[in-house]
C-alpha cells in the first residue's frame, strides 16, 4: 500500500510498478517475501528507486508489538556504513552500495518484517520485505523398536523420530508401501511435536501401536515426514524395518532326512519334525514302530544301522499331542544264499547241483560271472568236465536302491586221474617221426618218456599249453630199428603208463594221425556210428534175402518133380536147374 508520507498517488503507483518487476517470491498479504534456507545467507534487495538528493539509506525490522529496531545505515555522500548494536545481528549484516541487505547464517528468529528506508531532505521512502526461513528435517528413524510382535495383541511397534524441522512437518506410517490409517484398537498413531527454544526447530515423534497378523511376518514398516521448503512440499522416508512376528503352530510336519531317495539295511535314518509356528517348537514326541509311547526329543531323531524290521509308519506330534503327522519308511534288504560256496573239489564226470537263492524287499536282478566273464545262463553240472573248473560269482542287485548289492563265490576244482593216448606220424621229409603223448588230468600230470628195454629217459620232449585239463607232449625221433616208447603221466591221484611200438624209419608203416580237437572227435564218432549202422543194415538185409532164397529153392525143387511127371521133358528140368544155379550164384 502507499504510505501517507509519499508525495502523490502517481509516485506511489510508480514505486509499486518498479517493485512488481523484481524477481522475488510471491506477495504475502500484499508484501514481498524472501524464502531462505536455515544457515544460508538471506539477501534482501531494497525495492525502491534511488531518488535524487538521497542523503542515506537505512534498514530496520519491526518487533511483534510494531516498534522498529534499526540495524544498518549507509550514507550516500560519505559512502560509510554503520551497523547498529543489535546482539542478534552482530557480525552477520552486510549493506551494499545499492542498499541490498545480506544476513549471514539465517536463523528461525530472522523470520521478521524488514523495511528499507531511503531518505532525502524532503521525503522518506519505505518498502517492507517479509523473510521466511525453512529447515529440512533429518531423515526419520524408527526408534524403540519392539523385539518381536505377537499376533492378536495391540503393542507398541516403535517411534518414528525426525529432528530439526522448520516449519513443523507431518509424519505418516507405511506398511509395504501403503499408508497405515488409524483403526480403533488395531492401528493407533500418536504425533508429538517439540520445539527447541534456543533454535526454534521442531522435533516430531510419531508412535505406532499395532495388532499384527501372521501375514506381517515379512512386512516392511517405514515412516515418511512431509515438510515445506523454499520450493514447496517435500518428503523424506525412513529405512524400512521388518519385525519378528510370533504366532502359534498350526501344523506339524515330519520329514526323513536322507542323502538317497531309498533306505537300505545298515543306513542311518534322521527324522525331522517341524511346526509352522514362530518361533518353531523346540521339542516333539516321536512315535517309532514297536514303541507304545512317544519318545521326547528335539526336532530331530536319529536311528543308526537300521534293519528290515524298522520298516513301518513313523509319527511325530507336539509335546501336548495336539497335532500330529506321519510318514512311512521302507528299509530295503537283499539276501543271497549260494549252495555250494567257497572252494569245492569234485572228480571229473561227477554231477554238481548249484543254486543261488535270493530274498529281497523288491524284485532283484541276478547274474552269474565265471572268471570275470558274464554268463548267459546259470551253471548246471550233470557231468563235470575240466573246462567247468573256475571261479563262479553269483551277484544280485536292487536297481532302485543305490548301493544295495550282494555277491558270493564258488571256486570249483575238477580233478581227474591222468589219461593217455599216444599217436605217431612220419614227417614230410621221411627222415623222422613225431611221437605224441596226449594227456588229460588235473592237477596237471608230469610227463616222462622212456625207451622200453634200454630204460633210457628222453628229455627233449616239447609240451603244448595246458588248457581245460589237457595238453600234449611230443618227441621227434629217427629210429634205425624198431623201438617201443613209453609215456608216463603222473599226478597226485595216479600214475598212468602207455607204450607205443615205432618201426624203423626205413620200414613203411601206418602213420596214426594226431589227436583231433573235441569237435572233430565228436564228428568222427558220429561218422563211425553211421558206418556201423549201414553195415549192420546190410547184414540184416542179406540175412533176409538168404531166408527168402532158401524158401524159394525148396519150393522150386517140389515143382520140378511135378513137371517131370506131367510133361516128361528132361530138357526143361535141366534148364530149370541151370536157372536155379544162376539165381543161387
Give a verbal description of the structure.
This protein is mostly beta strands. The chain contains three helices and 44 strands. The strands form eleven sheets. Strands 32, 34, 35, 36, 37, 38, 41 and 42 form an eight-stranded mixed β-sheet that branches. The protein has a seven-stranded mixed β-sheet with strand order 1-2-10-9-4-5-6, with no helix packed on it. A hairpin with a 6-residue loop joins strand 37 and strand 38. Helix 2 packs antiparallel against helix 3. The protein starts with 8 loop residues before the first helix and ends with a helix. The relative contact order is 0.06. The N terminus and C terminus are likely disordered. This is CD166 antigen.
Feature tags:
mainly beta, 585 residues, single chain, eight-stranded mixed beta sheet, seven-stranded mixed beta sheet, disordered N terminus, 44 strands, elongated
The assigned structural class equals mainly beta
First-last Cα distance: 179 Å
Q: Could you report the average pLDDT, rounded to the nearest whole number?
A: 84
The radius of gyration is: 65 Å
Number of DSSP strand runs: 44
- Please state the overall shape, judged from the principal axes of the Cα atoms: elongated
Strand content bin: 35-45%
Q: Unreliable stretches, pLDDT < 50, 5 or more residues?
A: 1-29, 515-528, 557-585
Helix fraction? Answer: 10-25%
Largest sheet: number of strands, sense, barrel closure: 8 strands, mixed
User: How many helical stretches?
Assistant: 3
